[in-house]
């Protein structure tokens, strides 16, 4: 540890109290735990940092950032560390500020239906707090048991019900942030309407900690769906998936999720998680639909939808889950894919989005690219197809070593990103940019946009201390 | 006209063609029409400008702005000029760029349900274009027959169904803007998910033309409500209004609008627009609710809601409109207020928002303020109460001259804005800041926020040529 760090440690203890400041070698946390605060699920970067701060209030955060700003010390904001883009990795001796202790409710407004919470609240806890008050917070995904709401906001999280509820951006009414200058900005979350100048809140949503630290949020709540029905469909051709999706537009039943997977993916789930076959005969593609059911007539609507897509010969088979257990099985076909793949294969993940109408030609181009230049590379294809969001995972061929495979993937990526750009898609639908996709940002944003982003970063973080090296 | 302007005129004709460039004295437009392009509905500022440009494409706009940027000439972007804050006033010899000819459809995506349009399309035309394609664009308000969609976006328009559909911000997927440097930024509207750096689009929404000119938009569409029911309620006490609103949360029937007015307002509408009494006995307050009805069981839900609020003695009377004509009458009670007031009185308008839970104490404080310091001032109170949005109109006492009245209002405003700030509201819910409320921005945004806004403006408009003097 350098003298600078020693000074920083003592200064920060003076500012915040010693129970909120930890160092790698102070023996207060075991090394594994200490390191875990400086990394995420990306696993390609090693944490390397000395000072961890666990603030309890926005004022604590402001004091710490102000100190860092005065002394030009870099900061990594740390939430639930469930990201896949290296956005929360501290690998260059930054100070890590983890919001893990900032998990309290600040306020509840029953008229607006909003909860004001500290940003370190675990997403699942927010679900529970909403439920306790007769409300529902609809942003949901696999990692909600450990992700923080602040991290969700900083990465504009999506999840499985975006097709109905939108991204988390749509559920944030107010934010409190500490900028890279240590200033506290409180974007009013008490009111629905406030047309008084630029909506700065939206800059911080999805900024991956590069402008400041989100310390509190006012989230909107809604009413929970009364009941749901999960439907699993066998779809013979890719183009039918889009036709089925379009068909759902013709019915007023609320479609909560519209997911898809290939037979390749289903086989991996069956193989590794021991789930039964959904249908007697296999199919090239499968679609999972989840519908909200409020009353008896909704069941009839659901039958009408299935009848319509059956009559149009868009599916070869289909089944409505009859109970909660079967709901879970159907969801397992889709949500078990990542786990099954990680159990037995080396995988290179990509999380991309495309206009639905360009998806088929993109997939065709992508297959051509792989078969012409990367023989043996197989694609595990699944995702939130209703949102145009594909999880395009490339599975390592047996004959390649891991390092050869990842080396090859580094060549595939820019070629794939070029295809995505050509088809007007995004190189990162949900996972963000972080460290991992920084070099490829130009495939989704123009140089003028990137220059503007840098200039905006300089407004809130003139010394570049907030999560340096991420995104921009 | 100065030599500079003469040069500008000739240069712009060279750049754009003479059919797109107009001057005050070229005789191509009568003076009234020419002037109308440089003003809005505020009526307190006089237009004073020499050059009007009517571009047809984003490239036209970019060429004009680039020229203005190179030569340091100020620009006022002009849409349908229906604003109430002076945001579209050209009073200091700016060039006016009106998007009135940019009213074409660029693209339609039936999968996403989006329309890509030029920003000069009239809002009502967008409604029609959506309907023609089996969709619905839900942002609606009195001025949609003349307002442009670009102006709606630049002011983050709301309207009568925000309580259900949100503000226009929620319906914008993509934007094309020309910045104050003449750069064209195209924020991808082809995809729902794109977590690749800062969402700059949201900065331009609600920026009132101070960062650049919105030239195209990709708007999301939804499905139209199958049917609606309009309900009018007599409410004896203010606090009951909030109780009724809370009660609506307990039912799954979609509430499209929740509006209120005082007896004072209803009397003005009856007096000047010749509508019948809604109920045999008058009431201190009235509430208008509009519900979406999709099927028969929804009618039962509506009855259940009315039964519940009747049982709880929250209303003294209530009526469900039985046909389209009655729908219109009920809406007239609410939407006829502005017209009735303007027919017979001098009025000082305010469009504010407050947390619903603070509304009652705010109104009490406001009444105390008026009766202690501004005797004879009466308040016409109505608005989108479900959104916490009040139209607080102060009606001139007979004994005051117009100029004395407005002088007094200038004293009332900051005192009222202080109350709004104390109760955590906004000094401008929908109308924006423009010229009219610029001096009062500090009552809704902190100095640090305002400084950040100025610095962000400098990123996109370094020479300060975009709508100078507005907002900041």
TrEMBL record, chains A, B:
Swiss-Prot/TrEMBL GO biological process terms: respiratory electron transport chain
InterPro entries named among the record's database cross-references: FAD-bd_oxidored_4_C, FAD-bd_PCMH, FAD-bd_PCMH-like_sf, FAD-bd_PCMH_sub1, FAD-bd_PCMH_sub2, FAD-linked_Oxase-like_C, FAD-oxidored/transferase_4, Oxid_FAD_bind_N
Entry annotated with the keyword Translocase: no
Needed co-factor(s): FAD
Molecular-function GO terms, alphabetical: FAD binding; oxidoreductase activity
Sorted UniProt keywords: FAD, Flavoprotein, Oxidoreductase
Membrane-spanning segments: none
Tagged with keyword Membrane: no
Pfam family, any one: FAD-oxidase_C
Superkingdom of this protein's organism: Bacteria
Chain ranges of the FAD-binding PCMH-type domain: 45-224
Family: Belongs to the FAD-binding oxidoreductase/transferase type 4 family.
PANTHER family: D-2-HYDROXYGLUTARATE DEHYDROGENASE, MITOCHONDRIAL
Protein name: FAD-binding oxidoreductase
Organism name: Leptospira ilyithenensis
């Amino acid at each position: 540890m350098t003298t600078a760090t020693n000074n920083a440690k003592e200064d920060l203890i003076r500012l915040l109290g010693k129970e909120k400041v930890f160092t790698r070698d102070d023996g207060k946390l075991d090394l594994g735990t200490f390191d875990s605060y400086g990394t995420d699920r990306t696993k390609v970067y090693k944490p390397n940092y000395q000072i961890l701060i666990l603030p309890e209030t926005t004022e604590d955060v402001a004091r710490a950032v102000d100190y860092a700003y005065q002394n030009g010390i870099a900061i990594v904001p740390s939430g639930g560390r469930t990201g896949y883009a290296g956005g929360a990795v501290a690998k260059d001796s930054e100070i890590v500020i983890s919001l893990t202790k900032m998990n309290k409710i600040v306020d509840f407004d029953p008229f607006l239906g909003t909860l004001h919470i500290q940003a370190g609240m675990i997403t699942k806890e927010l679900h529970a707090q909403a439920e306790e008050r007769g409300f529902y917070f609809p942003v949901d995904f696999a990692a909600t048991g450990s992700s923080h709401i602040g991290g969700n906001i900083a990465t504009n999280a999506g999840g499985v019900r975006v097709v109905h509820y939108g991204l988390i951006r749509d559920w944030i009414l107010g934010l409190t942030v500490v900028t890279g200058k240590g200033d506290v900005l409180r974007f009013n979350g008490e009111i629905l309407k406030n047309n008084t100048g630029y909506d700065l809140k939206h800059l911080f949503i999805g900024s991956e900690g590069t402008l400041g630290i989100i310390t509190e949020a006012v989230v909107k709540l809604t009413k929970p769906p009364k009941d749901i029905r999960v439907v699993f469909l066998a779809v013979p051709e890719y183009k039918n998936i889009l036709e089925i999706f379009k068909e759902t537009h013709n019915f007023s039943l609320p479609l909560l999720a519209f997911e898809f997977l290939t037979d390749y993916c289903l086989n991996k789930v069956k193989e590794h998680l021991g789930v039964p076959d959904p249908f007697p005969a296999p199919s090239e593609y499968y679609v999972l639909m989840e519908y909200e059911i409020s009353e008896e007539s909704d069941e009839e609507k659901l039958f009408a939808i299935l009848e319509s897509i059956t009559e149009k010969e868009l599916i070869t088979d289909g089944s409505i889950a009859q109970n909660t257990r079967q709901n879970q099985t159907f969801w397992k076909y889709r949500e078990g894919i990542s786990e099954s793949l990680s159990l037995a294969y080396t995988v290179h993940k990509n999380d991309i989005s495309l206009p639905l109408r360009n998806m088929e030609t993109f997939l065709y181009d992508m297959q051509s690219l792989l078969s012409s230049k990367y023989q043996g590379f197989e694609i595990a294809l699944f995702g939130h197809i209703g949102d145009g969001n594909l999880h395009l995972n490339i599975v390592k061929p047996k004959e390649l070593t891991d390092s050869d495979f990842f080396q090859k993937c580094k060549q595939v990526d820019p070629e794939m990103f070029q295809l995505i750009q050509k088809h007007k898609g995004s190189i990162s639908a949900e996972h963000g940019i972080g460290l991992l996709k920084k070099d490829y940002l130009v495939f989704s944003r123009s140089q003028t946009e990137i220059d503007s982003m840098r200039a905006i970063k300089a407004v809130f973080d003139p010394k570049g201390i907030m999560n340096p090296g991420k995104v921009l």
